[in-house]
Hints:
Elements: H1 24-49, H2 53-81, H3 86-104, H4 106-112, H5 116-137, H6 144-164, H7 171-192, H8 201-231, H9 237-259, H10 270-301, H11 309-332, H12 338-351, H13 362-377
Amino acid sequence: MTTRFHLTAMRPRDPGEPGRTASTLELFFDLVFVVAVSIAAVQLHHALTENHIVDGLTSYALVFFAIWWAWMNFTWFATSFGTDDWLYRVLTFVQMAGVLVLAAGIEPAYVDRDYVVVVAGYVIMRIAMVAQWLRASRSAGEQRRTTQIYAGGIAFVQVLWLLWLIIPSGAAAIIGFIVLAGAELAVPVVAERQGNTPWHPHHITERYGLFTLILLGESLLASSNAIIEALHSDQELAPLISIAILTFIATAALWWIYFWPPHHRAIGSLATSLRYGYVHYFVFAAAGAFSAGIEVEIDALTHHSELTETQASFTVTIPIAVFILGIWWIAIRDNADRVVNIVVPAGALLVLLDPVIPIPFALTAVFLIAIVVVLVVRPPLPDSNPTTPLDRNDL
């Protein structure tokens, strides 16, 4: 129903709606977020290359949380209440503007530990989200209380984020961040206990898959950079071309592993949905860090890094292992037989052996290809209960 202001009532969407796919607005939204991810990965690359490992990883974890959490909240809101009218689009654009503000503050966050601009961009995104939830509460029906808790909880935590800026940088600031991140994560848990929002399994997992594709594309860019660097270097030509080829193989393998399981089965209950959504922080962060690791490896090969070759290799293999283990836990494990459930996590752990052998990065590609071969010959288990409605109350 359209009102006189040309607005559509923001009623809960049908979780079984046939043919539900990501909208062009959602795809546009993802692209803006990838700008922030790309900048964060570039700054991580610089920090690691300069051997500022702890500081670089800490800043990356903090900044990436802001990026991931704002993206994830909008994604789950859209699957339940998206209307695509003009006000919904405008509020979405406000969130996108907040992403750009956040992106502008990433370098100061890394270099000077100045998180003012990052927090400002984050709060802009979250306040727009509060407006979305308040609007949804007017037509949410049985989910009215849930939407109000979302709006109130998000707004309250934003006040705390602004107060967090007063805390001097150091251990106290890190502890404060952890507390506030925990508060953000708690809001959906508390809200959904009042009445579950109607997420669409295929739509929500498609959204995660599309974002993963864009993040893996960052790794392909790193592979291209290796070739470009090789064209300007005579001495390191062979190693750089090898890195480019192996990066492409690894990225293709990660794509294969990610999309092997039927992801929509992984969010059949509130508990599994929370696990799926929250663990994706590590999956997404690992995908972004993988591209940074490739750049670090290129710097090490061209003698522009303060890291040893072994340390540089770990910047590649650790993200790969985290990515695989994360997807195995939330999507592959429950849809695979014993062989797959042995090979996938074992292969991820074996990837970590690569830096301690005298064959840079090559063993990682071998292990990844072996995992893919096993996945090809052993497809996912059939859905044992495809017609049973979703049970969302077993948290």
